[in-house]
Specification:
The complex is a heterodimer. By secondary structure, chain A is of the alpha/beta class. Chain A is 43% helix and 19% strand. The chains are: A alpha/beta, B alpha+beta.
């Protein structure tokens, strides 16, 4: 089975680089960007199975990017990875709006993230 | 009028005035009552003698001498009675006998013309200066008995009593007894010279003039009864006596000269004397006071004025430490004390503890709330004098031992409403003098003022602490809302560092590195480790900044605060967060900005609050511009935002406490209020300019420190 296509959008470039370095050698197709609008451009050009999305970003933030994905890229799973923590309020809201999962930074295991990505694709 | 007449009219006037004064002042005290009757009798003596000596004829003189002697006869008995009461001698037998004898003699004076007065004669017929005067001569047998046994006898007996008591007495009482001796010398002996012509010794009773001083001195000693200052009264006596002698000399001299020169000399002379006396009495008195001060007492009594001035000043001191130190030092210095201390109540430890002292070895001295002396002071709310017997308290040896560490001569409780906020302890005067009523007149009001000043200073301290706490809470609350930015700056590096390591290990485990050149692998590992180090450093920087920022301010001004650095520190802390809200921080800061004298943390708080406030006023994206420039004397900072601005009507309220336009629960309304307080505490000024819809601009001015004064 083909491994999922991943898009990572995070305003912390070193983090997206880390993800790329992890996922690529494991056979995933992964694109990275550090701005929301750039991410949306990529989404228009290519179909991604999973988007790993930061929440708070200058310019378009994670919530806005998700809304756009929900509108134009139905079926793309969104996993939020963020340091933002307001005791679960935002998490609940975003899950309610269709996010697949919510992971808090610092992520404690790349392995678990990988499993999560795989589960997300299989969930359909 | 002759000299004798003048001295007698003086006696009559001063003594009757004193009789009334003493009675009004101390009508409850037995001592004062006796003394006022005594003074009244002296007045009767003076008035009678005045009328008698200048009488027109024999009968009139006789009558007035009878009246005069009513007063005189009473004096020995009253004096003895007075001494008994003063020395607290309980046996009254002798006094009763003496009063009885006095009554008998009074009766002979009034009812029998021969037995007491005998007869009266015009004496000093040839005296030009003093003029002739009617005198009791030759006296009756009872008169002789009276003079020898009552007048002289009782005087000697009473003084023996006083001398004995003097040896046993505490110092304050000794002081009073010294007055008595001084007064008696002037009064009884001066008055006694009036008896000389009666006994056929024709010496003019010049010393009668000292009699008015006698009741004056005694009265002073009684009214200022607890303690007194012998030097002051001696000084006053010297001034008064010299003044009198000089003026009298002028009067006599001018009268004599004018009498020689002109026929109507006497009236003319009187007029000139009166003029001279009127115009010279004040300057002469000043001269004498200054002279005695300068040559005899070296101005040491000026401290009272100093202390009075200090009482006025003390209320303006709001720093508690400064207040207590100032007080203790001022008291020691002006009153010339060996030592002094101020104890303040420590509610937490339930004790009174020395907060400032001079001349004490045990500077840590404290008294527990349940200590006997504390209980006593709280109950009685009165000062305690330790070296005096007539201080209203007899202290147990235990108390005296307990507070021996204070080496107090007196302690004054400081009451504010119901609370005894502190205790002022004063040691001995270096002059070895007692504390006098004059001292109390200053110290006790000073203590009251001090109590208020201490309460004020404490309140101010509490308020400052409360304000600092509020500022801290506000700061922490804002840091909380900044968590996104802070988390971002901490969690990302942590996640990346961890991820890099995890990835390397997983790659190794899952065989992704299989067949790789060990050199390449080592390179890879090195790269990862460098990344981990970089990311850890990044996290460290932000935690350091955060912890230094979160620390409460010290409240001390330092002379080397660099505004540029502090602004940068704050800006970097909030910048990330603001960027997420699309707020840009623009810096226009002059590179060589001078130092300012301030508390570094407080300066950070100021900028933090203003920047956050500015950011909160920006709805969707905008700019905060921080400008800073300086001239020779001042550093100017502007923080301008592109937010919603402030309504004109609110403009003068933004620095008021609890003023907020934010939704309930969103703002405490303390932010800008605290900012203003802190700015002022750091010797700066803050103002705001704004137009609704066009943003706001906060302007701050601090005093620049000239470079050579900077401590590096």
């Amino acid at each position: 089975m083909k491994k999922p296509n991943i898009l990572s959008i995070d305003d912390e470039p070193s983090f997206t680089v880390l993800l790329k370095e992890y996922f690529e050698p494991r056979g995933y197709d992964i694109d990275i960007t550090s701005a929301g609008d750039k991410g949306l451009e990529l989404l228009h050009e290519k179909k991604y199975d999973v988007v790993l999305l930061d929440l708070r970003m200058a310019g378009l933030d994670g919530g806005e990017v998700m809304a756009e994905i929900n509108r134009s890229n139905a079926g793309t799973k969104i996993i939020f990875i963020t340091a933002y923590n307001d005791s679960g309020k935002t998490r609940e809201r975003l899950m309610g709006e269709g996010a697949y999962a919510f992971m808090e930074k610092p992520i404690t295991s790349l392995k678990r993230l990988e499993e999560l990505v795989n589960r997300a694709v299989k969930a359909d | 009028m002759n000299l004798y007449g003048i001295s007698n009219i003086l006696i009559a006037i001063t003594s009757s005035g004193i009789a009334l004064f003493v009675y009004v002042k101390g009508y409850r005290s037995k001592l004062c009552k006796i003394w006022s009757v005594f003074a009244l009798c002296v007045a009767i003596y003076g008035f009678g003698a005045y009328m008698a000596a200048g009488a027109k004829n024999h009968d009139s003189a006789f009558f007035w001498w009878q009246i005069s002697y009513v007063g005189v006869i009473m004096l020995p008995a009253l004096f003895l009675h007075f001494v008994y009461v003063f020395l607290d001698i309980r046996k009254t037998f002798l006094i009763k006998i003496v009063y009885l004898v006095t009554l008998v003699i009074l009766a002979t004076d009034i009812f029998n013309k021969q037995l007491f007065i005998g007869n009266v004669s015009l004496l000093f017929k040839n005296s030009e200066l003093f003029q002739p005067a009617w005198w009791v001569y030759p006296p009756g047998p009872i008169h002789i008995f009276y003079t020898l046994f009552l007048y002289a006898g009782i005087l000697i007996y009473a003084h023996i009593k006083l001398i004995r008591a003097y040896k046993r007495s505490e110092r304050s009482k000794q002081n009073q007894i010294r007055y008595f001796f001084l007064a008696t010398t002037l009064g009884f002996i001066g008055g006694g010279t009036s008896f000389l012509p009666c006994s056929g010794i024709n010496i003019y009773p010049v010393f009668n003039i000292t009699v008015p001083l006698y009741p004056l001195i005694m009265t002073y000693a009684i009214i200022r009864h607890q303690l007194m200052d012998i030097e002051v009264i001696i000084k006053k006596t010297i001034v008064f006596a010299s003044l009198f002698i000089i003026l009298f000399g002028v009067f006599v001299g001018i009268t004599l000269i004018t009498q020689e020169l002109i026929a109507e000399g006497r009236i003319f002379g009187l007029a000139i004397s009166a003029l001279i006396i009127i115009f010279s009495v004040r300057p002469l008195e000043d001269l004498l006071v200054r002279g005695t001060d300068k040559y005899l007492f070296q101005k040491k009594y000026d401290y009272r004025q100093l202390l009075r001035t200090f009482s006025d000043e003390v209320l303006t001191v709001l720093d508690l430490d400064m207040l207590v130190n100032l007080t203790v030092n001022k008291l020691v210095e002006t009153m010339k004390l060996f030592n002094a201390a101020m104890l303040l109540h420590d509610e937490k430890n339930e004790e009174y503890r020395i907060v400032s002292s001079t001349g004490l070895e045990d500077v840590e001295f404290k008294l527990k709330d349940d200590e006997e002396i504390i209980v006593y002071l709280r109950k009685n709310r009165q000062h305690i004098l330790f070296e005096s017997e007539d201080g209203q308290i007899s202290l147990s040896g235990n108390i005296k031992r307990k507070i021996s560490g204070l080496r107090s001569s007196m302690v004054i409780p400081l009451f504010h409403h119901k609370d005894m906020v502190g205790i002022l302890s004063l040691g001995k005067k270096k002059s070895d003098e007692e504390f006098t009523q004059d001292d109390f007149d200053i110290l006790l009001p000073l203590a009251r003022t001090l109590s208020i000043a201490i309460a004020n200073a404490r309140l101010f301290e509490k308020l400052s602490v409360a304000q600092a706490q509020a500022a801290q809470r506000e700061k922490m609350a804002v840091i909380g809302t900044l968590s996104a930015g802070i988390n971002h700056e901490i969690c990302n590096p942590l996640g990346i560092a961890r991820g890099q390591c995890e990835m390397f290990l997983l790659n190794l485990k899952e065989g992704l590195y299989a067949g790789k050149d060990p050199e390449d692998l080592l390179e890879k590992a090195k790269l990862i480790m460098q990344k981990v180090i970089d990311e850890t450093d990044r996290a460290t920087v932000i935690t350091r900044k955060l912890s230094s920022f979160a620390k409460p301010a010290k409240g001390k001004l330092e002379g080397n605060v660099r505004l540029k650095k502090e602004i940068e520190e704050v800006a970097s802390l909030v910048e990330h967060d603001l960027r997420l809200d699309n707020i840009l921080i623009v810096r226009e800061i002059q590179p060589d900005l001078p130092y300012i004298a301030a508390d570094r943390k407080q300066v950070q708080e100021i900028f933090f609050n203003i920047i956050i406030n500015a950011a909160q006023s920006i709805v969707s994206g905008g700019k905060i511009t921080i400008r800073a420039k300086s001239d020779d004397k001042k550093v100017y900072v502007e923080i301008e935002d592109t937010g919603v601005g402030i309504k004109k009507t609110n403009l003068n309220q933004v620095f008021n406490p609890f003023f907020t336009t934010k939704d309930p629960g969103k703002g405490t309304g303390l932010g800008l209020f605290l900012v203003k307080q802190i700015v002022e505490r750091n010797k700066g000024r803050i103002s705001v300019q704004s137009e609704q819809g066009k943003g706001a601009c906060f302007r701050l001015v601090f005093k620049a420190i000239v470079p050579e004064k900077v401590k590096i």
